[in-house]
User: Fold these one by one.
Assistant:
Number 1:
Amino acid sequence: MRMSSPSTVAKTPLYETVASRIAQSITEGTFRPGDKIPSVRTLSRQFQVSLTTVLEAYTLLEDRGLIDARPQSGYYVRARFPVVTPEPGISAPQLSPTGVSTGELAMLVLRDTRNPDLVPLGAAIPNPALLPVERLNRMLATESRRHGIASVSYEIPPGCEKLRVQIAQRMLTAGCAVSPDRLVTTSGCVEAVVLSLRAICRPGDTVAVESPVYYNFLQAIDLLDLRALEIPSHPRHGMSLDALRYALDHNPIRACMVIANFNNPLGSLMPDEYKKELVELLVARDIPLIEDDIYGDLSFAPNRPRMAKAYDRSGMVLLCSSFSKTLAPGYRVGWVAPGRFQTEIERLKGITNIATSTPPQLAVAEFLANGGYDHHVRRIRRVYARQMVQMAEAVGRTFPAGTRVTRPEGGFVLWVECPPTVDSLLLYEQALRAGITIAPGPIFSATGKYRNCIRLNAAYWDERVENAISTLGQLAAAMS
Amino acid sequence: MRMSSPSTVAKTPLYETVASRIAQSITEGTFRPGDKIPSVRTLSRQFQVSLTTVLEAYTLLEDRGLIDARPQSGYYVRARFPVVTPEPGISAPQLSPTGVSTGELAMLVLRDTRNPDLVPLGAAIPNPALLPVERLNRMLATESRRHGIASVSYEIPPGCEKLRVQIAQRMLTAGCAVSPDRLVTTSGCVEAVVLSLRAICRPGDTVAVESPVYYNFLQAIDLLDLRALEIPSHPRHGMSLDALRYALDHNPIRACMVIANFNNPLGSLMPDEYKKELVELLVARDIPLIEDDIYGDLSFAPNRPRMAKAYDRSGMVLLCSSFSKTLAPGYRVGWVAPGRFQTEIERLKGITNIATSTPPQLAVAEFLANGGYDHHVRRIRRVYARQMVQMAEAVGRTFPAGTRVTRPEGGFVLWVECPPTVDSLLLYEQALRAGITIAPGPIFSATGKYRNCIRLNAAYWDERVENAISTLGQLAAAMS
């Protein structure tokens, strides 16, 4: 193939012509989101243009948000979302606090994961085929052997030092300079969140949450006899700060909880300036922020977003996270950077279960230090980026007209807003009978909202999943 | 050596003569508690008497409680306690409920374990030299490899099935026929206890506990905004049922907690008929019993005692335990048999931290199935039996007159009641300065009792520990 000669495209620079050819091949689906596009050298040979021209073309495509450069790796098509299916609008929960009772449903969705016969679109679990199982297990074995007696002994709070050092180093890439001494390891992120809530709140207190909200937040709030106040949230930018400000002015709010980066279930990514504003807004009122960053590393862009904790100068943000979405959910290794609540979190962790299991902490610490964590994460987020688009497209094709779907820039969950006549609780039951598990909308609300919404786990993509989406679409259509 | 000829001992049967010779060698310290005595065959040769005579002699010594037969192993001197130091009397806490605030001290005692320069007589941790570290770690490695993806996946409540099957089989030896489906694995025994309390109680409820009481019970009660009612307890038989009955008649008690077998800190072993009575007493009033059996397998007698749960016909006993005292505290693998609270416990476990870490559960399950758990436990309880006597004797030698010490028949903690002028909080501080950590009495009470008592961890015994006991004795004497 030879590029059109310079004469015929005299008015456009050659690199723009190259760029539009590539853009076209992306639009046509030759290269799909997450795919690697040809290297600069290959394209230069193919198009018979200079290396500089190709580089300029790629820079242009980067600027337009079509591709991403990945150091030492090349250029990749950025995850985009089909234009056919619009995004949901901002949520509109009622602005008065409510007791929580999501009941048995959330438990059922988690329980569905134990049934291998079900297509697992319900719980937000990572695709096991994308977890570094063998390397982790090797490290579990070698580290336990190497530490001998220490491997069977308590790692009492704040927990395994080597792991805390690795986490502290890694938090720098998210904009947080936190000393390893200011971290506490936990049995997963959920435990970190529950401990944080408990450190801050007393029974009866009100907690501001996003809406829709991760159902474990609601269950934790319920567990501690607290009340949830659902704040409207935008599918792109997360919790509405205007709505939060209004709520703060009208309600005695004791704490605020957010998943700022690649929210579960909305997929929203709160812009950095909003994160800063959120922290300032709360600190000015002496209200702690519990931030869950469990999806932060799964950014489809080359660099992961900052944490809200990065804007915390007064120790009022309790940053919670874990390796359950990237390495091993079953290891139950998470952590909290509790700011000024350090002592109380250590105390509560000790009372709750004394310590986090030692061998998994040693294995994860070693994986972070010498296991190629960055490489691993780059690999899996490429897959999730592609699958998220594939699933969103499939929803667009098969769900009834009027359906909306989110366009997350990270993580692996999609939020689908069906036409108002669709009953997601009924859909959940019908889907189960068809061998598919989904997360129905009402479990993401303390007030029974989102009856016409579902959350889909996009961590899996194959023919079986594609057929499942098609089945779901038909079931939903039958209700429209 | 030849036994005295039959003629000179004409009036006593020959086997009695043999028995008294052995008894004497035990009294003189030739054979010490936990030691193996010569086999029947050896002694028959040595004393030139028939095998039958030796067998009869050993049966007599068994009946007198001096030795124990261990199948496939031989005869061992039973753990006894020095007569020089009397046992403490029954405790006498006040019979009105109180808010709990054991404060920072309990945390400090646990924290002391991280300092290898301190002689570890404080926290009730097992001797790491007696843990099967290498075998466990080998099983951790092989089981994780064997289970592949399952080893990094959630074991959501009720938890790892293979482990539950093994635990259910083992509970039979403690008199409990519980189906594996009626067990929930937890991150250690403390978590099992906290989940149990939460499943039963609401803030403000009163819980009846032993006195002195394991301080984690008090902290759990505090955590959940409950109130503790301390019931007088006997150093041999545990919680006084008369006192409990009185308390039940005069207080609205919502739950009762006991460590019936080898209590921490008292070392008491509640007789089976008392266990039965305890369960009946509570069931008649519809009050659940939370039983902690973490020391149950560490019985110095050949057969472990039954659990109170063995007398539970109505699902009102929540049996909590773990492998932290026998296999690996750092693995954080425990369980609860929650009776009629099964569903609620599963739900609470899920909200607290979703699941217990998978690889340690797999390793422990394999150890129970094929690792020689019984043999291992027989070995370590022999050591603990001997050390407990050695430490009690050392206390008797070095502590001021008027000191009392318990005589547990299992476990590895000793409770020392010093003369009233001894201040254990001061002793704790002075001991720390001397490089020794102990558990001061007041952390075992919600009402600041036991100021003149300390708990000693007898899991270690060597010259350093012996010297530490001597130092403690001198420090206590200086306060008398």
Number 2:
Amino acid sequence: MAEPDDAARHRAKMEKRKQMQDTEAAARTREQGLLMVHTGTGKGKSTAAWGLALRMLGYGKRVGVVQFIKGAWTTGERAALESFGPLVTWHTLGEGFTWNTQDKARDIATCRRAWEQALALMQDPDLALLILDELNIALRYDYLPLDEVLDALRNRPPGLHVVVTGRNAKPALVEAADMVTEMTLVKHHTAAGVKAQPGIEF
Amino acid sequence: MAEPDDAARHRAKMEKRKQMQDTEAAARTREQGLLMVHTGTGKGKSTAAWGLALRMLGYGKRVGVVQFIKGAWTTGERAALESFGPLVTWHTLGEGFTWNTQDKARDIATCRRAWEQALALMQDPDLALLILDELNIALRYDYLPLDEVLDALRNRPPGLHVVVTGRNAKPALVEAADMVTEMTLVKHHTAAGVKAQPGIEF
């Protein structure tokens, strides 16, 4: 148990901290659609985007997903999100990783089709959150023109939240974003010989 | 369009890359319950845990959540996960941040009750994923004995996946974990005066 002195010190410290927190919170007054980027080599980029989708669905708001790279294999996240019915619009345009298709012109055409779905979703006034999964990969290999993508993101409806995932986010996208987290790899189980498992990787 | 030479070079490079990827994937043969840690000061630690929950629910598997710090305010993630009915068991024991309660003995008692719920869930043979949200905070302030927590995590059923979230993960927990991602803050919208918004922060 904490000694009385310790308890009093703790309370005094926490009172000060609460004051600081309250002052900081009071300074945050704006509400706006955010451009968010999840990048880095660690696990959690797409996963955190699914978490945001879930959070938004908890308020009964509409969520759109466009997958630029990953192919149309079965995933737990897709099955679970589609259980929310018409609140979720899901487009998987990707045909797998670049080393699967081995055809650059085809990859470029695929990314273009995915981007057109993204543009269409941005016009939907009821959409609250748009997830552009692995768009960073398409940008990194110049499969889509960066300027065109940035312009469209800047000119989206002001209330629309957008998440862009994938390694190697372009510096200009980081610059344009409101929130950027780098998922930094500290340790990954695949390096220890554990295979991709349902519910964890897909 | 890609020139023929460029296309051929691309294909050759991707064939080699695919070979490498296939070799690496073949070396990953084990399946096991993973101990995963989401730490760091960036946004996405709990959010990525909700994404894992969603993924697991997509396979119809059971998920348990214990919240050690955050209080019982309404959140989108809770509303959305509870729409999966009996597949989700959710315990919010926390009473808010330490600067809200301002009472260390009470915080310690709260963490103990939360930990007991976690221990009970670990005994459930049908549970696939257990999320210990903000357990890192409880450990950081020594509100729970680290050794006791590590022992229980090591002795959990071998197929059970566990995610521990929160800043300042203890080095011994990082050591014990199979997968650790540090959510590194690159840029956060609260610094620009944007307030916490439903669907994004809660």
Number 3:
Amino acid sequence: MSFAAGLQALDLLGVFFFAVSGSLLAARKGFDVIGSLLLACLVGMGGGVVRDVILAVGIPSAFNDPVYLIPPVLAAALVYVLFNSVQRYTSLLTLFDAAGLALFCISGTLKAITYGANPVTAVLLGVTTAVGGGVLRDITANEVPSLFNAREIYALPAFVGAALTALVWNLGWFTIVTGPAIAALVFVFRVVAWRRHWCVPLAVRGWHRPGA
Amino acid sequence: MSFAAGLQALDLLGVFFFAVSGSLLAARKGFDVIGSLLLACLVGMGGGVVRDVILAVGIPSAFNDPVYLIPPVLAAALVYVLFNSVQRYTSLLTLFDAAGLALFCISGTLKAITYGANPVTAVLLGVTTAVGGGVLRDITANEVPSLFNAREIYALPAFVGAALTALVWNLGWFTIVTGPAIAALVFVFRVVAWRRHWCVPLAVRGWHRPGA
Amino acid sequence: MSFAAGLQALDLLGVFFFAVSGSLLAARKGFDVIGSLLLACLVGMGGGVVRDVILAVGIPSAFNDPVYLIPPVLAAALVYVLFNSVQRYTSLLTLFDAAGLALFCISGTLKAITYGANPVTAVLLGVTTAVGGGVLRDITANEVPSLFNAREIYALPAFVGAALTALVWNLGWFTIVTGPAIAALVFVFRVVAWRRHWCVPLAVRGWHRPGA
């Protein structure tokens, strides 16, 4: 498999994970199947479209290549058929979202590098790609994005993943082993931080955490 | 009238209809005339700007050609002068929004085709153009977009219109007769679905519709 | 200092002022330091990124040039260290926001002109740059943007600043004296309108102002 094909496979898998998180939210909000498919498209493709627009690469892949429609259709169909309870909704959504985050911070950084961006730009775009879909999902659902939630560690794992990807790439160590290792690290970091309620200091020194 | 001029006339008419829907919402929300003009611009131009940015055609028409300022100014002035009651607000907004939807799914698809996009991309961009302004309007007004409302058929008419436009164009049948016929079909589909409360299945099988 | 360097200095100063307004909002909303930094980036860079995407100039400066990361980092650090009370939150946020507005309506207009845009496009982009970051800030914080608030004069000072910049530039009178004079005028206009509760007519003639 060529590098370009591998990068696209990574991207499509990330689209699928984020698309499932979109369809899960649509299910809980009481949207219909079309709304589920549209939210799956918005969340799955949103980060990548923003990345491609900022990279100024012409028509974004998600619009130009029909293969990008498959993951959202699959995601909406899976949620329609398999999902019969809202009880584990939050856990499932967080797990799929974490998987998307882990893949997109890598694919976003690599795509920027292959288009000649400098390492700082590549890391910024990796983080933007990773968090973009989720922010669009939360804004559309009329909630403050979990990106800004003081009780969530969300951007930090994406930043670590993007920075590691740029570093490992520049050292020439990016392989079929190190790539998945970075993705696993990001996924575990995000999920453990969520389960253990890790948090960072508030925006103002000496401020008491609301509810603490 | 050349094809390019006809396409622009179609686009400007769509901008006007969406701009009126923006000014009507501004009126109901108690915005001032400047807020009304700005929301008219955002809703009227939003879909087209997103389309042009994704098509990567350089500066979007709405910014590059001052003629695009006329419809929002007209819309805000009309609402200021003529609109004296909120009683029929929802009906009027839905009708103008449906007219904009009908024109934009055609003009968006055709613009993408004339810039060399493949049919699938053209249909996706037609739908994005048609629903983009309304989504921006609803997000700005702090509401869940009607695009995702399970009680509304909104994206489906736009998709049918965009797909028919791409099909009819590729068959060489797009004329001054078939174009308006597609627009009328989309408009009637959207309005009848709204009046008759048509709906599609929810995102999850076997789920009870909230409130049903 | 060359013109390009002066324009970038103006832009960076505007990024800083808007970034402080973002970190102040993050502080009041109870976000953590990472959320504060991210909101500082979004508000400080948002308007400029939208401007650069619409101008189609390639990768936006805020992503391409690491120096744009300094103002948001400074802003989040300053708010973390110095801000210990929410009492004057609204006043401070409005003052920093007004300063950002004053600089961005000038830098946005000038950047568009230097890329060959016509004067109308340049003024539109100046206004978009100036109001863009604040709109993103308010939408993310789940509030109706103050851009549309009938009790705020927000877009008008930005429009006056952008129009004066385009006019003075085309007359060849844009200097180290007239530039800051326009910025001061926009800042004073915005702040005095806010303090004195100036307002413009509502979107509909003869409508009573809510609460009036």
Number 4:
Amino acid sequence: MSMDTLRTEVDRSLGEFLDRQRPIVSGPDLAPLLNAARELLSGGKRLRPAFCYWGWRAAGGGDEPGIFVAAASLELLQASALVHDDVMDKSDLRRGMPSAHRRFQRLHEKSDWYGSAEQFGEGAAVLLGNLLLIWSGEMWRSSGLPNLEATQPFHDHMRTELMCGQYLDLLEQAHGENTFESALRVALYKSGKYSVEQPLRLGLTLAAGGGAPWIEELCVEYGNRVGIAFQLRDDILGVFGDPVETGKPAGDDLREGKRTMLIARTLAAATPEDAATVRRLLGDPDLDAEGVDKLRGVIEASGALDECEEMIARYLEESLASLDDAPITTEARSALADLAVAATSRKT
Amino acid sequence: MSMDTLRTEVDRSLGEFLDRQRPIVSGPDLAPLLNAARELLSGGKRLRPAFCYWGWRAAGGGDEPGIFVAAASLELLQASALVHDDVMDKSDLRRGMPSAHRRFQRLHEKSDWYGSAEQFGEGAAVLLGNLLLIWSGEMWRSSGLPNLEATQPFHDHMRTELMCGQYLDLLEQAHGENTFESALRVALYKSGKYSVEQPLRLGLTLAAGGGAPWIEELCVEYGNRVGIAFQLRDDILGVFGDPVETGKPAGDDLREGKRTMLIARTLAAATPEDAATVRRLLGDPDLDAEGVDKLRGVIEASGALDECEEMIARYLEESLASLDDAPITTEARSALADLAVAATSRKT
């Protein structure tokens, strides 16, 4: 199955699921919630559904409608995380459009309502994120696949782990200085696990029921590594990404003071003067284009950018090698290889 | 079963469930999340579990361990709503203690961490609320009761409805002037449904499987009415409650500008001068004790307080009368009658 066909199936499943919420989320007052959900779900690379779907296929699953429902539900979890993330970071933009809380704030302002528009926007976005979170579990279960019950513990685990990972991410920024080890932990738990390893594990387990040893091996040797490389790419895009492609302002992670592997490696290798510059500018909400350029220069000069690119290349290479040993079809092997490349070399 | 014994079973089930999260929510970094969850769950009236349990008993269920697990899971949903509510309202206190986001803010301040302590507190509380929300569904399903699958659609419905109800509540404050009809809708959807009617329906359906007509009748004639009366009592406590009992500052709802039935009736019946006073003072975040007293005086003088008390009394009376026709045991009838009284005459 091509990525385009998969995308079409995922889109259709999401549309049908949201339509089924209409009797509850009904009337003009509640329409903005459902509209916001639809818009949020209209974009995205559908990587998580793809890892889930190809896990399923790798373990012998066929093209049943249920797998598209299960895989698509992961987009709801992701959308929930993005909406809440933007509230927590007070981000104005997401994929080049106003973030959900800013949209609700704007609705308040346009409607000339009472009270603080900002507070209304944040409150509405918290609730929208909650709906998406609830729906992700509901849609997952609605797939009706036979091994749902055996897979549910992994699904539960993934969601708790994601929230813990995001908390570790908050802590990492709060702690200031970070280490290679702590940066790797955050990359894995706030993103790598639920973006790659867990969707893959869910798909594999949905098809195979119990966990054959090769399944766990594939999750760790391939999924875990692609997951970390996926987040390292994200870290690089957060600093060097093209705003036109990422839909976020240039150097947004620098302004937010994100403590990533890129930063940990920069501080470890930079000259004392350059390190002082990083400590001074990183996390300055008013950082301008000149400041962004300055920090980018220091990160490049320290060798940290090259090091992170090498890490990504190494993780990718090892993950691809691990596919050779897995007892899966040629089609699944080739699709997972393509996905690993797509997830780690993306521009958005 | 006495309310005290039920409480013990609920407490034990919650403790065991949280213990099972330890392998994921592990280590000193994540401990504050689990500790905060434990503290949040140590208090509360356990009304929602009680309505669920007595629904189960009313439809013929016995004292199996699973029902305590299912009933207790409703406390996780409630705790999640409280944590997020306090973030959305920027409330400092909950049950006389600092609210969750203020605790995390304090942790940041005490630890002398980087960045905004307030933003860290809010972010951590959003994540804590998410964990509690996820866990409420996970614990519910872990009860292992035979009719779980038949009941799941009601459970899903309840959670989506709760988020929509909370959004309607935000809208109600934003709209300013409200009507009896809109106030009733908000009272029902933001609180009445998930506090009384839905827990009752879940318990009944868990025991009976499909929905016999008397079950739906009991949910509407009894559950719906007790739910509205429950929230009307909440509205009165938010204005006239004793801070020692409620754990919230006196007149907190007035400062937050909550547009409740009490306020709708006040504005409909007050003299033009008094109505102008309400419009001027309601929602003033700096409202002092004198202002609170002034507003209380206007609400009482308008007759709105008496009207709301009469509404509660009428809903209670009708709900109690509906119990007479239900084909349930004397023990369940008496317990549900006691619960209706407790839910509508409480001081906290």
